């Protein structure tokens, strides 16, 4: 019986082994690339789910925040500067900070040019005869999560010259 360890591979055997190694290396590289792509896709989907859930929670909170903002706009004179009102203002600021930490921001309105992607014009007054549409009043705050609109800002837009 011949000892296989002492037998040297012939050129065709060596070529076949090198070819097999190259094929397996290429297959391994493809598998690694597929794995990396799968992880990336999973992260993108996970990020999207996080953003959707954040937007849903924020939408649920907006009516309460709107009421809080309306209450702060209509504080009776005798309560301005009162400790109770300072507490209510602190709650509003806390909401602002939480939203900021979540990546939620208010849409800029008053003084900004009307943008239908961000603003919803409740009243459009063309009595001044101008051609530029600039927001004059915010009726309800609008919010963005990153670049996505959670809720359009409701605004009044008189046309200016």
Describe this structure in words.
The protein has helices at 11-73, 83-102; strands spanning 104-106, 119-125, 132-133, 137-140, 143-145, 148-151, 153-160. The protein has 161 residues and is of the alpha+beta class. Strands 2, 3, 4 and 7 form a four-stranded mixed β-sheet that branches. A three-stranded antiparallel β-sheet has the order 1-5-6. The longest helix is centred in the first third of the chain and has 63 residues, at 11-73.
Instruction: Say how many strands there are.
Output: 7
Note the main sheet. Answer: 4 strands, mixed
- What is the alpha-carbon Rg in Å? 32 Å
- What is the CATH class name of the domain at 104-161? Mainly Beta
Structural class: alpha+beta
Q: Which parts are unreliable, with pLDDT below 50 for 5 consecutive residues or more?
A: none
List the main descriptive attributes of the protein structure presented here:
single chain, 161 residues, alpha+beta, Nucleotide Exchange Factor Grpe, Chain A, domain 2, 4-stranded mixed β-sheet, 3-stranded antiparallel β-sheet, 2 helices
Helices, strands, pairings?
Blueprint: H1 11-73, H2 83-102, E1 104-106, E2 119-125, E3 132-133, E4 137-140, E5 143-145, E6 148-151, E7 153-160
Parallel strand pairs: 2-7
Antiparallel strand pairs: 1-5, 3-7, 4-7, 5-6
Helix pairs in contact: 1-2
């Amino acid at each position: 019986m011949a000892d296989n360890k002492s037998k040297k591979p012939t050129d065709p055997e060596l070529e076949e082994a090198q070819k097999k190694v190259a094929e397996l290396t290429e297959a391994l590289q493809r598998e690694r690339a597929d794995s990396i792509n799968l992880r990336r896709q999973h992260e993108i989907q996970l990020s999207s789910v996080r953003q959707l859930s954040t937007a849903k929670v924020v939408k649920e909170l907006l009516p309460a925040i709107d009421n809080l903002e309306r209450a702060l706009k209509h504080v009776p004179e005798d309560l301005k500067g009162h400790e109770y009102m300072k507490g209510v203002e602190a709650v509003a600021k806390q909401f602002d900070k939480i939203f900021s930490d979540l990546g939620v921001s208010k849409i800029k309105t008053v003084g900004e040019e009307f943008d239908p992607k961000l603003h919803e014009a409740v009243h459009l007054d063309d009595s001044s005869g101008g051609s530029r549409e600039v927001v004059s009043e915010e009726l309800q705050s609008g919010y963005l999560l990153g670049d996505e609109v959670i809720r359009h800002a409701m605004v009044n837009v008189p046309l200016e010259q």
